[in-house]
Amino acid sequence: MIGLWAVAVKWTYPALLPTRYGWMYFHRAYADPNFWPSIWNSTLIAMVATFLTLAIAMPTCRFLTLQNFLPGRLIEFVIYLPMILPAIAIVTSTETEFLQWQISGTYFGVVILHVFFMVPYAMQILLESYRKLGTNYQLLAHNLGANSWQAFWHVTVPLLRPGLIAAASLSYIISYSQYLPTFFVGDSNIITLPLLLIPFANNGRFGVGSVYSLIFIATSLVGVGIITMIIGGRHGIKRQKY
Question: Considering the entire predicted model, what is its pTM?
Answer without folding.
Answer: 0.87
